[in-house]
Amino acid sequence: MVNGYTLTLAGLLLLGGSLGDRYGRRRVFVIGTVWFAAASALCGLAPSATWLVLARTLQGVGAALLTPGSLAILQASFTPDDRSKAIGAWSGLGGVAAALGPLVGGWLITAVSWRLIFFINLPLALAVVLIAARHVPESRAPQNPGGRLDLAGAAAITFGLLGVTYGLIEGPTKGWTSPIVLAALVAGAALLGCFAVIEKRSADPMMPLSMFASAQFSAANAVTFVVYAALGGALFLLPVVLQEVAGYTPLLAGTALLPVTAIMLALSARSGALAARIGPRLQMTVGPFVIAAGLVLLVRVDQSGSYLTGLLPAVVVFGLGLAINVAPLTATAIGAASSEHAGVASAVNNDVARAASLIAVAVLPAAAGLTGQAYLHSDALTRGFHVAVLIAAAACAAGGLLAAATIRNPPRSTSPRPEPPDRQWHCALDAPPLHDRGSGVEEVRV
Questions:
Q1: Distances 379 to 235, 369, 373 between C-alpha atoms, Å
Q2: Phi first, then psi: what are they for 441, rounded to 5°?
Q3: Who contacts 369 (Cβ-Cβ below 8 Å, separation ≥6)?
Q4: Per DSSP, what are the bridge partners of residue 355?
Q5: What is the pLDDT of residues 175-188, one digit of tens each?
Q6: Quick one: angle between helices 312-335 and 215-244, nearest 10?
Q7: How many whole angstroms separate alpha carbon 298 and alpha carbon 360?
Q8: CA separation (Å) from 292 to 57, 171, 258, 443?
Q9: Which range, 229-243, 326-340, 354-368, is most confident?
Q10: Nearest CA to 149 among 63, 12, 21, 7?
Q11: Is the pLDDT of residue 131 over 80?
Q12: In angstroms, rounded to a whole number, what is the distance separating the alpha carbons of residues 90 and 327?
């Protein structure tokens, strides 16, 4: 059920971002939200596990349409000075949602029925659609009149990502030498290579390879890969250890990380605003080192189960590191691409983060010596977990060094920003005008 959603989400993210850039980011975002809600209803009505898996797969399609749109809309709707702060607020509120979702879902499952965890999406989706229609401006990339949708590129990247994602998900359980796992990985990698060739030759590519000519864009995504691999591996193991070693209930294991959410909500927007003033390099360098310190402190988690002395210090330091790093990292990755490719840039960054987490979940337990038998013995699980978080901390520190070496602050203007004269209107939306009149283009007043 989880993998079906993950496969379609990862496989279609780039297509969703490209469609938003071409046909309108708000439009595709709203379509994705409606699609997600309809699939949620199918999940809630599923008469069997098979139907539930199929409905979850459809739900992933909707998520792939709406996920890149949210960041692309922020990128297109805010002036450069305000984007980092807006993305910081997005990061903080996203953390709140990630924390509240499991708590509300757990209560609904216990008190009423598992079906309500899907039906609750319907009123939320309705609110999203109404708010988007009323308050979110439309934006899109400048259209090439003769351009057509890059169907060959879309097919290659979608099935390539599906193959790689499936191989990474099934590798730890089926074995890396399993024929189906090897076939999926090899076919996926081959299709990704074909995608690069198709995009290089296409007159109207869905993901222009020129995006990667930006050293800042490539560097930000490289840092994303390293840091999110460390985060994905450590956060995959932590709830297991809290329950199997420290004796936490599933509910307590979920609430144990609430301080991270509170810290991100309080500080992410401020972190983004600071990065807009001084540049992202310092925070993208320091943040991973603070995250690494929090991961090192997780070696204090053991059979005693102490929260105040064992887990809380690690959680607080970890949360501070995320608040320092996430908003500048995301804003830099999206901002390094041109605004006309904001949707594709967001999708690339999302896919890099998800691929990093998948690889870490597949590789980190084995690297730490956590075999299937280790999960049956708390001492072995504890030792393996301590090794795993130290490996993850080293990876995070490497991400900080990589940021220091590759990320550059944008040049700062030495002249003050002129204030617009009285009654002078301007459009803050970094996108083509919303209305045309005749052969001329009218400036939209926002």
A1: 19, 12, 11
A2: -115, 125
A3: 383, 384, 387
A4: none
A5: 888 999 999 999 99
A6: 160
A7: 17
A8: 35, 27, 19, 49
A9: 229-243
A10: 21
A11: yes
A12: 8
Helix (H, G, I), strand (E, B) or coil at 406: helix
Q: How many CB atoms lie within 10 A of CB 287?
A: 28
Give the closest residue to 125 by CA, choosing from 255, 223, 248, 34: 34
- Give the pair of three-digit tokens for residue 86: 């807006």
Res. 424 pLDDT band, cuts 50 70 90: very low
For residue 300, give both structure tokens: 């204090």
Distance, CA of 67 to CA of 121 (rounded, Å): 15
Query: How far apart, in whole angstroms, are the C-alpha atoms of residue 425 and residue 4?
Result: 48
Token pair, residue 212, equals: 């990667």
**Kind and range of the H or E element at 432?**
none
Residue 441's DSSP bridge partners are 436
Place of tokens 């090899």: 186
Read off the pLDDT band of 400 (50, 70, 90).
very high
Please give the Cα distance from 158 to 140 (Å, whole number): 22
- pLDDT of 153 above 90: no
Q: DSSP of 170-226, one letter per residue?
A: HHHHH-TT-HHHHHHHHHHHHHHHHHHHHHHH-SS-SS-GGGGG-HHHHHHHHHHHH
